[in-house]
Write a structure and sequence with these properties.
mainly alpha
Length: about 300
């Protein structure tokens, strides 16, 4: 039987000592949580682990505490906070007073002290350069308007969250910020294409759904590949399920298959594209069953695969 190794460029450093402790812990969930933390160089919390592993916040916190107890994780330093007095001092400096004025122009209203505290945290706590913050604020406003319409009030808390995400992703120069915004704008322009590929006609995609699709685009898949994956998902579980589709895309990506032609040649074709799965009327293709029924179908499908191996 052929052996396997991590694809070149995909490596994550895992020390032998850490591997030994994970194995000794005999907790698969903790091992997966540790891999998630490794993917976030600046650290992450229970909320991130919960989202990435699909577990409850309580379970995610348990996993992190267990890893910390094993000496595998260190607690993040407390987030630096800024008082109203710090804001007053900062407003006496030309750079921050300029940022504050630009923020008020973007938000369309005078900022409260709490808003200025968040802006000061973005500048000094996260240490993002002024030019990056200015780019981010403009993008933030446009993104909110595009998602929710012109009447949506901007939130400094949401801006702070975006800033923390930019910092985590290393978007800390003007060039990186411009490249990131270009990618987001390209996706926004093509969102209609991907909605049609996924059979979504009567609503916008949620932020979680957008996150999945954007990750697929970054892997190198286009709308045609998304459609093909969607059809294969319908073949298997008869409903749109992003988590299930993500597993398919990760499998294709690992095999170096990205275009429909490559996928059909390298991964086989289960049915002609564009036709409804057997036994499912075309009118009901997008009708989502109850959550427990979906989970049952997924478990059934996975058990069938295990029996075939």
């Amino acid at each position: 039987m052929a052996g396997y190794k991590i694809r070149e460029g995909d490596s994550i450093v895992l020390s032998k000592a850490a591997a030994d402790r994970l194995i000794a812990g005999r907790d698969g969930g903790a091992a997966l949580a540790y891999l998630c933390v490794l993917r976030h160089p600046d650290g992450c919390g229970a909320e991130t682990i919960s989202a990435e592993l699909g577990v409850s916040g309580q379970e995610a916190e348990r996993l992190l505490q267990k890893l910390a107890g094993q000496g595998l994780l260190a607690a993040l330093e407390e987030e630096k906070t800024f008082s109203p007095e710090d804001v007053t001092t900062a407003m006496g400096k030309k750079e921050f007073s300029f940022l504050a004025a630009q923020a008020e122009h973007v938000f369309g209203e005078k900022l409260a002290v709490q808003d200025l505290q968040r802006l000061l945290y973005i500048r000094e706590g996260l240490a993002l350069p002024p030019e990056v913050i200015l780019q981010m604020m403009q993008f933030f406003k446009k993104d909110v308007r595009r998602r929710y319409g012109p009447g949506r009030r901007l939130s400094s808390a949401k801006l702070e969250k975006m800033a923390a995400e930019w910092k985590r992703q290393g978007i800390d120069t003007l060039e990186k910020a411009e490249a990131f915004i270009r990618r987001k704008e390209e996706y926004a322009d093509r969102e209609g294409e991907f909605r049609r590929a996924l059979g979504i006609y009567d609503r916008k995609m949620t932020d979680t759904e957008r996150g999945y699709v954007e990750s697929w685009i970054e892997m190198g898949f286009d709308g045609a590949a998304v459609r093909l994956c969607y059809e294969r998902t319908l073949d298997q579980i008869h409903t749109l399920n992003f988590k299930y589709m993500d597993k398919i895309f990760l499998s294709w990506h690992g095999k170096g298959l990205h275009t429909p032609e490559e996928i059909e040649k390298g991964d086989g074709v289960r049915r002609a594209r564009g036709t409804a799965p057997a036994g499912v009327p075309a009118a009901n293709r997008n009708a989502a069953p109850a959550a427990d029924e979906t989970d049952r179908l997924i478990r059934l499908t996975e058990s069938m695969k295990e029996e075939d191996t």
